[in-house]
Amino acid sequence: MSASVDSSFRPLSLTALLIRFLGSMNLAITLLVAVAIASIIGTVLQQNQPYPDYVIKFGPFWFEVFKSLDLFDVYSSVWFLVILGFLVVSTTVCIFRNTPRVLKDIRDYKESAQLKALRRMSHGHEWQSGFSRDICVERISAVAKATGYRLVVKSEAKQLIVAAKKGSGSRLGYIFTHIAIVIICIGGLIDGNVPLKIAEMTDKIQVETRNIPASQVPLVSTLPIDNLSFRGTVTIPEGQKANLAFIDFKDGYLVQRLPFLIAVEDFRIDYYKTGQPKSFASDLIIYDKELDAPLYKTISVNHPLEHRGYTIYQSSFGDGGSELRIKLWPLKGANRSDEIRAVVNTPFALSLEKAEMTLEVLDFRPINVNPDITGVKKFKNIGPRFQYKLRSATGEATEFINYMMPVEKDGAKYYLTGLRHTPAEDFRYWYLPADSEDGVDRFMRFLALLNDETRLKKIALSALPKQADSFLPMAEDQELVAQFMVGLIKQFVEGGVGLISAQVKAAVAPDKQQEISSLYAKMLHHFLRNVYWVVLQEEELDPTLGLSEFDERFYEDAVAAVSISHQYDVPVYLDLVGFNHKEATGLQVTRSPGKMLVFPGCLLLVVGVFCMFYLPQRRFWVIVTESQDNTQLFLAAQAGRNPYEFEQEYSALEKALLLQLGTERTD
Amino acid sequence: MENTIDKDYKTKRRFYQCRNSADYIWGLANIVGVVYALSQYHMLMDGFEKAIIVCTGLALIGFGWVWQTIRVFVTAVALVSLFAVSRYGVMIDLGKTDFFLKYMLASQSAIMWMSALYVMATATYFFNLLTNKSFSGVVATSLTWTATGMGFIGLLVRWRESYLIDPEIGHIPVSNLYEVFILFSIITALIYLRYEQRYKTRAMGGFVLTVISAAVAFLLWYTVERQADIIQPLVPALNSYWMKIHVPANFIGYGSFSLAAMIGLVFLLKGKMEAVAPKAFLTQRLPELTLLDDVMYRAIALGFAFFTLATILGALWAAEAWGGYWSWDPKETWALIVWLNYAAWLHMRLTKGWRGNPMAWWSIVGFFVTLFAFLGVNMFLSGLHSYGGL
Question: Distance from B366 to chain A by nearest Cα, in Å?
Fold first, then answer.
């Protein structure tokens, strides 16, 4: 920025000292580095996440430290804005200090350069020409003009000095780029949330953190219509209207009122033939008192709507309150299923046999294009899914994601239900085998039977062997054995194979454990099979004729699913059986008057940068002295930049001059 | 008087005054090409796209006037690409059966040729440096030109192929990491070839081509391991004319910065060799320090200018797609960091007069910053720019 520091020794006033400091190159470089480091922090540490996520990630101590340093929102933190402000000031000072000198340099041909100074230059040549002084000057001018130089001729007592220069663009480029930076930064600061920050610090506004309808948000969290610059979002279901937007701020939000009403007629997703989304579009109607008629406009990604300095973008989409028909399958207890109708984003009270719970359906998506695991196609639509939370009376919630259709895996079909306890976790999926009708009914009946002790006991009693050659001991007391079998099943359902072997370990001497375990396993499977037979018989199948390949596979999958069912620690499975889809479009509404500065600033920056690098300043001087029989010529030149390239340019120039003003006299 | 000067000293004040007939033929050929493209496909383009194709034509004319060699190159690439397109006709499946397409010109084949030729060129440049056989130098340069040509042909044919698969899928092949790696390789190579001609030295070739070979290695891994070469439809956010100018401008920047870093490496090597073994043959063969310094500066200046342009184009695009010209998205932020880094580099050189080893080291460090902005952000950070995931 500042090229040199004046080296006068007189004491400087405080202002002069301050200006010198502000305009110094060292400060500028330090600030550039500071901005770079702050930016790195801002990218490494994910910004503007919910505060609880940070607490989980860093622990309460570091969370407080980071929060006090504003590291969760670096780019609108006070210290970052101060650095940016300083950069603007430093650059401005630089421009003010250097512009006069640069402008002078652009105008100045330096025709008064002293011979001594010229002799010190990196390039020079001295020769004698047979031409007269005037012809020399004329030819020098011609060569200079032909190569793009402009020149002045200064005559002194005994000599003429031809001073030529070209490429003032690089000097102008310097001014352009630095002014551009200042303009862009000022524009950026206008559009940044500095005013909000100030308003918040002076308690003019207060962040709203509660999840309440916009109409109930207090005035102190509402921004007026005349707010110049903001960036807000609003989700509007199809067929509904809104005249406000929400601005994310700190750990909550603010409400921005708009001077017009946005109505959403329709939201659409178009798909490519391969299944990936091709475009997101919303049909909007703008109702504005300043308009004679409502404005109809379809917006899509990359094609926003501009209206009165506000820009409305297609930014996301979601569910606008779809109605879902859900079958409830109790996982413990009775074999009955109720059907309910739940609406997305509206809490629904579930009264189950053993507990009261609240169902909160978070999202519903009718089409889910996922990478195809079978590899036949790259992507595959695996059908509708919905995401929900089950909240217990104590307020604890578990989150689920269920698919409506079975998904194929290794040749069999499964219903997927994913579960997680915190948003930070990934979903863990439970695979429920689909029956021959592509439903969960058979599995649910199997599970219900395994939970029904009375019926289990009956099955156990009827299944006990009557022959002596069985591996089961002929029990005197069949009742006791049946009891034991039911207990074994109970352990299996409640804790899988793990629980059974833990029990064996606890109760049996080490040398017998192996034997007992394998005996238990045999008994368990024998009994599970009997239970499965009963399930098949209920479907009016005859298992004594042998199991089909499908039924065999189903059995294995069902047992595997039961063995981990205890990890699915809620009493109900939600089976989506129908839906009435209603979408909502996510719009971003912005107002950024700063771009009236930023965009011209950008143009100036590009022009400046290219001028600076590609119109290098070049100067040369020729001193022409006439003596009695010939003319003395002294050529000098120096390059400020790109010395290597100048080398070639200079030798071409010298060659041309020598050619034109060689020693022979032709006239 | 003026006439003699005209004859003896060709460089004229006005750029267009000193054009010869070849220049005019070149200009005309480009105009014809643009007009033909517009007449054939104008119904598929919006106003911006028409402006882009016209500006591309003008830029090509200017480029060919400044750098004559590029005319031969552009003509060859255009003819071969047209030949490939004509072999395809309207049948994408011909790529698997037609001899020319299958073994040479289908985009995937051309890119394989490009990869192989770049690796061979790298080796040949080093062979040339060590043996100083001038013939091997000519071979190395030819290999690089050919590889670059195959890269351009590969991309152009791929562009056509995307439309053959399905007109609604068709798009310029600069939309994912696979495609931009090809773009990176050929742009870096072109910039290098320009400097090779201008500074009349081949000693830097092996070093610069090493970076390209590394890119090629990644490309091959990406093809084999991830099947990244399969043409995918555009996500809605990328479906914009801005992509056509934002991405190439960015890669002129990335390419120049990578080249500058490798020149920085040669600079350090030369400096070390001069100190340790001034008489050694390698010391003699490596270019002068002043030349290396000049190339490094020019590359960074070129990269900086285009990177500035690219970032601004990106901001304009963001203003249209994401609702704000600046969102502090990780990719944007890292672009700013790269920009600040080279801005500081240029300030130090131009106003503080820094030269030599510190600047060479700095340009190498700059390469890693650039690399992170290019790849690291996609790998380690999440954000709006998640098009090129690994």
Answer: 13
Concatenated DSSP letters of A30-80: HHHHHHHHHHHHHHHS--S--HHHHHHHHHHHHHHHHHHTTGGGGGGSHHH
- Judge whether A175 and A153 are in contact, CB under 8 Å: no
Domains held by chain A: number: 5
Sign of torsion over alpha carbons A483, A485, A489, A491: positive
CA dihedral A311, A312, A314, A317 (to 10 degrees): 140
Cβ within 8 Å of residue B193, ≥6 positions away: B69, B141, B144, B145, B148
Q: How far lies A458's CA from each of A331, A486, A530, B378, in Å?
A: 21, 10, 11, 61
Strand A252-271 with A241-249, pairing: antiparallel
Hey, what are A71's tokens? 């590291």
Domain that holds residue A392: 336-432
From chain A, pick out residues whose CB is under 8 angstroms from the CB of B301.
613
Query: Which residue, of A68, A87, A107, is where some domain finishes?
Result: A107
List of residues 6+ apart from B140 with CB closer than 8 A: B121, B124, B125, B127, B128, B202, B205
Distances (CA, A) of B298 to B192, B199, B260, B262, B349: 11, 12, 8, 13, 12
- H or E element: which one contains A283? strand A277-287
Please provide residue B268's backbone torsions phi and psi, each rounded to the nearest 5 degrees: -65, -40
Q: Residues 6 or more apart from A134 whose CB is under 8 A from it?
A: none
Q: pLDDT digits over A207-257, tens only? A: 888 888 888 888 888 888 888 889 899 999 999 999 999 998 877 899 999
Beta-ladder partners of A236: A585
From chain B, pick out residues whose CB is under 8 angstroms from the CB of A641.
350
d(CA A524, CA A530): 10
Size of interface A-B (CB pairs under 8 A): 159
Do the domain assignments include residue A26? yes
**Structural domain contains residue A437:** no
C-alpha to C-alpha distance for A483 and B168, rounded to whole angstroms: 67
What interface predicted TM-score (ipTM) does this complex get? Answer: 0.92
Same domain as A467, residue A352: no
Confidence label for B382 from pLDDT (cuts 50, 70 and 90) = low
pLDDT digits (tens, 9 = 90+) for B30-71: 999 999 999 999 998 999 999 999 999 999 999 999 899 999
Q: Are residues A660 and A566 in the same domain?
A: no
* A135 shares its domain with A18: no
B205-223 residue pLDDT tens? 999 999 999 999 999 999 9
Identity of residue A519: L
* Closest residue in A to B310 (Cα–Cα): A606
Burial B285-318 (b: 16+ CB within 10 A, else e): bbbebebbbbbbbbbbbbbbbbbbbbbbbbbbbb
Strands A412-420 and A397-403: antiparallel
Q: Cβ contact (<8 Å) for B305 and A592?
A: no
**pLDDT of the residue at A666:** 44
One-letter amino acid of A192:
G
Quote the tokens at residue B222.
């990406």
Q: Do B9 and A147 touch (CB under 8 A)?
A: yes
Residue of A418, A399, A311, A414 lying closest to A359 (CA atoms): A399
Chain A interface, mutation test: which of B337, B359, B378, B387, most A Cβ atoms within 10 Å?
B337
Residue pair B308/B322 in contact (Cβ under 8 Å)? The answer is no
- The pTM score is 0.84
- Token pair belonging to B51: 């402006």
Please report the pLDDT score of residue A299 as a whole number: 95
Indicate the length of chain B as a whole number: 390
Q: Which of A62, A78, A107 is the last residue of a domain?
A: A107
